Amino acid sequence: MAVAGQAARPASFRDDHAVKHASSAALDELDGLLKDLRGVDGLEERKRGLFYRGSRAFLHFHEDPTGFYADVRLDGAEFERMRVSTKAERKRLLSRVRATIR
Fold it and tell me: Domain boundaries in the chain?
């Protein structure tokens, strides 16, 4: 199953299975990452786990049986899906977010 809006998304965004937005329990598991993201100047958390950069959605989270994912606008145009299930994956996301915001 493809992600909604697939026709308007680049191939890198498409997935061969649907993922749902992260539940409260999933966000509990990502709490350390959320705290780190809250400390990044230029990001505003408008709803738990939903970050904006200015007036535009910048980052949000999904979950499915294969793990946790972040959709983030690193290039400024389209969302890119990154896996954030492990500490290393979370560290990579945080590093890329900080580099993008600079």
Answer: 10-101
